[in-house]
């Protein structure tokens, strides 16, 4: 017999599967597998860039500039792979700053991967992974981006338990959430007097 949970008239009852996947620590083993896969993909991509002079060395920005030139070429025709507004963003802002963006991409990919590996601020890390995947897709590159973004969306939804087997087990209670400050901010574990 399942225990009934009292809900207010303005609340909707969560299905048991959703509660299990996104709020139950027993599902954290599933999310650990997903996290480790995502971490591997991001760390591999970032590490390769960190060790490439065309990304973070003497020629930083050249690899990104080449990638973006290919993206800009895909903005023409009847059914472009790259939308005009995104081409304008690339040509007006990113390409002129390719040297700096090259470092942002290399370190961003690596940091997302490390955070997912450690289970540290897992939902935030997955969100930034989705942001990078979306930018790669907007630049006309499919590759593994849809799969990585799809998995990361679920990790964002499971932010409460996706990092339970990781540092989030201690970070989230210490830091809290925007609606409930954690122990570090002096209100998370006080009892009412």
Could you tell me the strand content as a percent range?
A: under 5%
Globally, the shape reads globular
Q: Main beta sheet, described?
A: 2 strands, antiparallel
Fraction of helical residues: 55-70%
Termini Cα gap:
37 Å
Number of helices: 10
This entry's quaternary arrangement is single chain
Strand order of the largest sheet: 1-2
- Roughly how many Å is the radius of gyration? 21 Å
Category by helix and strand content: mainly alpha
Instruction: Provide the succession of SSEs.
Output: HHHHHHHHHHEE
Short description:
This protein has 193 residues and is mainly α. It has helices at 16-23, 28-50, 53-56, 62-73, 84-94, 98-118, 122-138, 145-157, 159-162, 168-175, and strands at 176-177, 180-181.
What does this entry look like structurally?
This protein has a domain of 133 residues. The chain has ten helices and two strands, in the order H-H-H-H-H-H-H-H-H-H-E-E. The protein has a two-stranded antiparallel ribbon with strand order 1-2. The longest helix has 23 residues. The chain starts with 15 loop residues before the first helix and ends in a 12-residue tail after the last strand. The C terminus is likely disordered.
Throw out a few tags for this protein.
63% helix; two-stranded antiparallel sheet; mainly alpha; 2% strand; 193 residues; single chain
Give a topology summary.
Layout: H1 16-23, H2 28-50, H3 53-56, H4 62-73, H5 84-94, H6 98-118, H7 122-138, H8 145-157, H9 159-162, H10 168-175, E1 176-177, E2 180-181
Antiparallel strand pairs: 1-2
Helix pairs in contact: 2-6, 2-8, 4-6, 6-7, 7-8
């Amino acid at each position: 017999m399942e225990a009934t949970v009292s809900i207010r008239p303005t609340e909707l009852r969560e299905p048991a599967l959703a509660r299990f996947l996104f709020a139950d620590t027993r599902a954290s083993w599933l999310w650990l597998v997903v996290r480790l896969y995502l971490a591997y993909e991001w760390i591999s991509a970032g590490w390769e860039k960190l060790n490439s002079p065309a990304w973070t060395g003497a020629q930083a920005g050249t690899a990104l500039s080449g990638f973006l030139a290919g993206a800009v070429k895909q903005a023409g025709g009847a059914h472009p792979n790259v939308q005009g507004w995104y081409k304008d963003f690339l040509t007006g802002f990113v390409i002129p700053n390719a040297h700096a963006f090259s470092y942002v991409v290399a370190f961003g990919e690596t940091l997302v991967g490390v955070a997912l590996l450690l289970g540290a601020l897992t939902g935030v890390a997955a969100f930034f992974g989705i942001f990078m995947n979306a930018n790669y897709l907007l630049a006309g590159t499919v590759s593994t981006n849809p799969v990585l973004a799809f998995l990361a969306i679920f990790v964002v939804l499971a932010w409460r338990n996706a990092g339970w087997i990781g540092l989030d087990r201690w970070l989230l209670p210490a830091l809290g959430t925007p609606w409930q400050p954690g122990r570090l901010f002096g209100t998370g574990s006080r009892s009412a007097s």
